[in-house]
Amino acid sequence: MKLRFLLPCFLCMASINALAKGDISGKVLHKDSGEPLDFVNVQLFNAKTGKPLPIGTNTDENGVFSIKGVADGKYIVRISNLGSVPQEREANVAGGNIDLGAIKLAEDSKMLQEVTVEGIRSQMRFELDRKVFAVDANIAAAGQSASELLESIPSVEVDQDGEVSLRGNSSVTVWINGKESGLTADNRAQILEQIPAETIDRIEVITNPSAKYSPEGTAGIINIVLKKDRKAGYYGSAEVSANSRGGGNISGNINFNSSKIDAFAGLGFRMRRNTGGSKMNRVFLDEDGEPNGLFTRSEGKSPNRGRNFFARLGFTYHITDNDDIGLSGFGMFGKRKSNSNTLYTSNIPDNWLSNEDYSHEDGDMRGMHAELNYTHKWNDNHTLDVIVGYNHWGGPSQRYNSEKILYSNQESYKYQEQNMDMSTNSWETKIDYTNKLNEWLKFEAGFNGNYSHENSPTDYYVCMVKLPPVDYDDYKIYPMVDEDDSVQAYGYFNRFIYNNNISALYTTFGGKIDKFSFSAGLRAEAWQIKTRSLGFGQTEADVTPFKKNNFALFPSLFLSYSLPHDNEMQINYTRRIRRPWGRQLNSFHDITDPTNVSYGNPELQPQYSNSFELNYLKSWTFHMLSFSAYIRTTSDMMNRISYLDNDVMYSTWANIANEVNSGCEIVSKNSFWNRLDLTTTVNLYNNHISAWNYDFLSESGSLIPLSGKKQNSFAWSARMMANVKLPWSISMQATGNYNSKMLSAQGSRQGGWSVDLGFRRAFGPWSISLNCRDLFDSRRFKSTTNGPDYTQHNERWRGGRTVRLTVKFSFGNMNAKPDKRGDGEPMDGSGYESGMEG
Fold it and tell me: Cystine design at 499: which of 215, 287, 530, 787 (Cβ 3.0–4.6 Å)?
């Protein structure tokens, strides 16, 4: 009887022991500075045979690693990183978790001379709530700008105007070092074009941020983190490059860090040259929707060039072991020039037959960001961060436009001059308090404020001349006649004043219980938009401002669970917003294009979205799979709308429909034979737009009704990046990209593809890179716009195939006194944290 009772108990206990598992965790630090090391490889070996097991992981940005669900047994944990002496630790898993504590890696002086020759650093680190891309590991980044660099990031697109989109959605927020830093939709493209990729440490893509962060941008946040290392000693690099289009750059960075002071500085000069172009074919339709034989067409090219300086400077003073104060900033100034020659043709009765347009634009770009920050640490889990920043961006621009207009019975010449001086000033404030109360509960609270003011006066001068055009600096322009003969177009004078003040309070609670993690947050934002559009001779007192006060709550919820065998899963929800920006609200009419007049809509309202996302992450020693499924509902969608009035196209913005976006993103990363790293990203998404109606009051005073039927569209994109170690210590990187056709409310964007190729060879502290952007000269942007009485096809491109040669030299002395503080600043002050909290 006793035996019959004991036997099942014995078998049950044996089964439980056979299934017993535990987690192995630890933290990897730099031996000299105590700085946490990210992207470090952690792998398990069989303690008896010494053979590697298909179980491992990488450290996050805080140097932390965790291998989940390891079966009971004896193991050797090997920690290795390029340029460091590997470390090994014994781990005996017996039904419980093991914390290996801090593991310090020392630099291998011999290997440091060979590291860039022998290895390809992992370019991407995957976490459930974000993807992190290391810029130094991207061969194609050599000599590029931030705008060009973003084109190589999976799921990110940059169009011919430098506008950024994420997963096919242009409503994305771009930050620098975890803050807006003065970037707006008005100036973002120009600023990103001037930041050298050499100054960037990494790029973070967060598709569904928590309530701790700004809800602006329904597609998510792209955070550009500038270099700010904290290894002890002094070190830096210098880089020079030139490309096949006559452009190039030269830059240098240096860091000095000690136990009391961390300082950094950087200076770069960049010269840009490229040639863009455009084609347009507008076909007019009869009452049955068939072409009636009338058309308007254009074809042109536009050489562009520019030059700018970019500078960074900053320091952090460690007042005590628990208190830091820092002052830092970056700025840029430069010039840009563009010329265009466009020929318009038309067969519309009683209209011109051709209009040959020559234009030249000169512009200055001046901007800076400065910030003062203070950090107090009661301990590693209890901190207070305070940041105050000031931003200024702007600069004058002039556009000279000459037209040779041919009618059936005469020829005339027209001269236009447009002057604009944009100035945007803003203050940013961030106060973040964090307290990890215990192992299963963490509390965060804070205040964010952003207060901006934009003042953009624009005026026009027009005159009719009889003089023929003259050649000047690769473009044609009509000579200006006497000043008395030029007439200021008072009706087109505009001074746009735009204030946008946002104040926000947030709180989040999160924690971890065994394998389950959670985070819930709520953000309350109050903001006021105030605009004035002044005509010629008017003052602010003469115009009643358009003013609106808003208040909204933005909740977030993240639930995560760690499954056995390095599987992780997360479900999250956030509410987000897309606010209209300055140019979308400005009623000023831009008439520089004789076939298309564009203007803003002061009545444009923000659009809100609710975003749900399911993330899954599975990792092996040499392979990784990431899967994200999402659905996003949007109300009062903002969309660019076009209509015809007296054969002239007008374009503006309006809230026209509701939208539902759903899709999935699949990313796989594979290493083969220690020679090939292959990263593949596939995006599948479906877009549903509800039926809509909108009535426009045209310039001629007539009411123009526009409408659209409900529609569903499926689109997909794929990107593959291959890093290959070739003979003779050469590294190669090839990237292919494809985007399918995508429908919009009033038309579609056609599909496209491109291929980039790069090679790198290192010689000790020197390295040489040879890159070709757009290898097959295929990067073109095509779109179709449909209306009740027309169909218009557009094609635009810029740059084209570009070959770039870059030489880089790295230097440094790592023998300075180590930093006693150890952990350093996570994420270079961006405020982001690793893990699953979003």
Answer: 530
In 277-363, alpha helices (H): none
Residue 586 makes CB contacts below 8 A (sequence gap 6+) with: 456, 494, 496, 498, 531, 533, 599, 600, 602
CA angle centred on 363, ends 358 and 369, rounded to 5°: 155
Give the SS3 label for residue 801.
coil
Q: Where are the beta strands (DSSP E) in 347-440?
A: 354-379, 382-406, 411-438
The pLDDT assigned to 526 comes to 97
pLDDT given for residue 82 in this prediction: 60
CA–centroid distance for 509 within its chain? 28
Spatial distance between the Cα atoms of 482 and 466, rounded to a whole number of angstroms = 13
Q: What is the pLDDT of residue 250?
A: 93
For 499-506, what is the mean pLDDT?
96
pLDDT tens for each residue of 150-169 = 887 878 888 777 788 888 77
Q: State residue 489's pLDDT score.
A: 65
Average pLDDT estimate for 595-624: 86
Distance CA 215, CA 204 (A): 16
DSSP 26-53: EEEEETTT--B--S-EEEEEETTT--EE
Q: What one-letter code names the amino acid at 460?
A: Y
Residues, the chain, total?
838
> Amino acid letter at 38?
D
Angle at 227 between CA 222 and CA 231, to 5 degrees: 135
For residue 439, pLDDT beyond 90: no
Q: Quote the tokens at residue 651.
A: 């374009």
Count CB neighbours of 349 within 10 A: 8
Residue 150 DSSP SS3? helix
What the block records as the tokens of 523 is 């953000």
Q: Are 296 and 348 in contact (CB under 8 A)?
A: yes
pTM for this structure? 0.78
381: which 2 tokens? 């889990």
pLDDT tens-digit readout, 678-716 = 889 999 989 899 988 888 777 777 788 888 888 888 999
Residues contacting residue 3 through CB under 8 Å, at least 6 positions apart? none
The residues, ordered by sequence, that sit 6+ positions from 467 with a Cβ below 8 Å of its Cβ are: 413, 478, 479, 481
Other beta carbons less than 10 A from residue 433's beta carbon = 16
Distance (Å, whole) CA 358 – CA 345: 14
Token pair belonging to 181: 């830093």
CA trace torsion 9, 15, 17, 20 (10° rounding): -140
pLDDT of residue 825: 33
471 CB neighbour count, 10 Å cutoff = 9
Q: Are 531 and 546 in contact (CB under 8 A)?
A: yes
User: 396-413 b/e with 16+ CB inside 10 Å = b?
Assistant: ebebbbbbbbeeeeeeeb
Integer CA distances (angstroms), 36 to 62, 271, 701, 838, in order: 5, 36, 66, 21
For residues 335 and 40, give the distance between their C-alpha atoms in angstroms, rounded to a whole number.
Answer: 42
Rounded Cα distance between 508 and 755, Å, is 43
